[in-house]
């Protein structure tokens, strides 16, 4: 016996055959004696679950039901030499009961199929969440745990990954939109997407922060940067849309720890405390541009739209105020961060 191109002689075939036999017996009991369909519905509900677990469509089971219904109808409508044919009224009653009966069992099978599909989806969400949590946790996982989690999630471990933080909690939808074998889960109220490589697409119209591409075991770094960047988007510090963390590293650094940015700014402006507010603003702007231009006077003058001699005059004042700090690489970085 074949259904949808599959042999029904094996274990699964015996299950389907048993289902048909159960259905035939139950129909006779129900039609003749008004029996209960609970057990038969349960059989077909489980058969529907089995079809999904085996990776098949529900169509084969429906075909088997159709074949069984036709067999019953054939036996009733043409009993042969040993039976007495039913009159028109009885045939009509049997047909009405039979078609309704087949619909009930088909519904039970479809319900089982969908129940198994939903359970499987929940299982996939759990195993993928476990994998992503391992990748972004503070302590890198051991090889055995990581490979076991990846195998359970059916996700080949890549050499490098990019972690994207996306506003919203529709993780499965986001993963499908991004594509490229991306996996996603919800962590602390936002969707975290992990994908091999660095190509990110499908997020138009969403607030999303793309972390840097990193080695697999440094996925936490990409995750932390992207999550912080998303928070800065939500607060209005960074623009909406899809932003790349690598393009906003200074902003991320200054905003990483509350109070640090204010402390940097206070420390950077302290040497100009005795200047007038207008002079302090001009000197601070000149110093920032000079630092950004890596100490080049001409480039600084062009950025400020002023004469190089004016820049040199201001720099003499700045050197008098800051002294050797302007020659120390660490101090120059701290000043640039504080003035930005």
Automatic annotation (TrEMBL):
Pfam families reported for this sequence: HTH_30, RsbRD_N
Residues of the RsbT co-antagonist protein RsbRD N-terminal domain: 6-123
Domain of life of the native organism: Bacteria
Coiled-coil zones: none
Every PucR C-terminal helix-turn-helix domain range: 283-339
PANTHER family per the UniProt record, alphabetical: CARBOHYDRATE DIACID REGULATOR, DNA-BINDING TRANSCRIPTIONAL ACTIVATOR ADER
Name this polypeptide is given: Helix-turn-helix domain-containing protein
């Amino acid at each position: 016996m074949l259904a949808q191109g599959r042999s029904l002689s094996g274990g699964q075939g015996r299950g389907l055959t048993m289902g048909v036999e159960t259905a035939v017996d139950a129909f006779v009991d129900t039609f003749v004696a008004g029996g209960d369909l609970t057990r038969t519905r349960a059989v077909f509900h489980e058969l529907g679950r089995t079809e999904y677990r085996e990776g098949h469509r529900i169509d084969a089971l429906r075909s088997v039901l159709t074949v069984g219904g036709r067999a019953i109808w054939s036996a009733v409508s043409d009993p042969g030499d040993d039976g007495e044919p039913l009159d028109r009224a009885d045939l009509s009653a049997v047909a009405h009961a039979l078609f309704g009966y087949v619909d009930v069992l088909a519904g039970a099978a479809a319900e089982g199929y969908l129940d198994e599909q939903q359970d499987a989806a929940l299982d996939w969400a759990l195993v993928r969440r476990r994998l992503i949590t391992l990748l972004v946790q503070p302590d890198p996982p051991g090889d055995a745990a990581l490979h076991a989690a990846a195998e359970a999630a059916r996700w080949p471990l890549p050499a490098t990954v990019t972690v994207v933080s996306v506003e919203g909690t529709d993780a499965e939808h986001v993963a499908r939109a991004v594509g490229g074998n991306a996996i996603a889960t919800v962590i602390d109220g936002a969707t975290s997407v992990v994908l091999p490589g660095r190509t990110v697409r499908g997020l138009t119209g969403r607030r999303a922060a793309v972390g840097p591409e990193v080695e697999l075991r440094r996925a936490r770094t990409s995750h932390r940067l992207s999550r912080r960047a998303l928070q800065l988007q939500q607060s209005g510090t960074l623009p909406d849309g899809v932003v790349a963390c690598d393009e906003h590293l200074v902003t991320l650094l200054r905003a990483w720890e509350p109070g640090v940015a204010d402390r940097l700014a206070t420390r950077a402006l302290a040497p100009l405390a005795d200047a007038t507010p207008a002079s302090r603003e001009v000197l601070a702007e000149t110093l920032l541009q000079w630092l950004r231009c890596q100490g080049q006077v001409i480039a600084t003058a062009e950025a400020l739209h002023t004469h190089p001699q004016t820049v040199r005059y201001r720099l003499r004042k700045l050197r008098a105020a800051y002294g050797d700090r302007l020659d120390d690489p660490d101090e120059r970085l701290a000043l640039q961060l504080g003035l930005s």
